[in-house]
Amino acid sequence: xxxxxxxxxxVFSQGKYTGNQLxxxxxxxxxxxxxxxxxxxxxxxxxxxxxxSNTKRDGGYDVRIFTPNEEIPFAGHxxxxxxxxxxxxxxxxxxxxxxxxFKAGQIPVSFDTENEVLWxxxxxxxxxxxxxxxxxHEVLSIDTEYIDGRFPIQEVSTGLPVIIVPLKSxxxxxxxxxxxxxxxxxxxHLDTKAIMVFSPEVYNSENDVNVRxxxxxxxxxxxxxxxxxxxxxxxxxxxxxxxxxxxINIRVEQGYEIERPSLLFLxxxxxxxxxxxxxxxxxxxxxxxxxxL
Length: 293
Known about the structure:
The chain is of the alpha+beta class. The protein is 20% helix and 40% strand. A hairpin with a 4-residue loop joins strand 4 (61-66) and strand 5.
């Protein structure tokens, strides 16, 4: 019976048992696609990652990401959590930056040692279809008056697309309850499968935005902390000058509704029409062990 080693970390954490859980499997290049999927389903976290080799290829480490339901090309909290494991358990010398090779492309991750925050630079965003308010409010089970009509409901992607929905208040965010039938009707003809709602009202006054992220299609009814979607949100906030600035440096809270409070740091700017996006957070190691194959 073979075995591989894995670590469990909490990403975008505010301390142990907060943030988004991630299982990271090392030296897993010999595992089949189907077994990776079975392992991810068994772990049943939002995502599970597999570092294919302890050596670099094209300057970066090959990594694959699986939700309980399928493989995805990119995700934020797996990027930071996997980078943390590589920095602390694989490389032989201190490093402040590594590159991860995902199916969506290479993602650089840097480590701010002073603040113990890992940062990823995400791909340049693309902005897709603008959706009608009547397509969304029934999916979210909220009245249209809760949706902030000053800004569009839009598909945005920095590697994994999400529908961004601006809401007026924390009450509106808390009221959201996904109507699964309407949700699957909506996404049937869309490449985008996840929905993120956000509000400028927050639980913690130190923070700037409150968000919730839903992705039943991937087997994730609600995500505790979503780095990819928050990168999309940062892009959206810049494009539509939500804070009336072409540069932001904000704190985002997520996961409160499912008792996994998470904290994400977003930096973004508009450089002559090119939007640069950085998503950061802290990572805490929880456990390590052996997985029998």
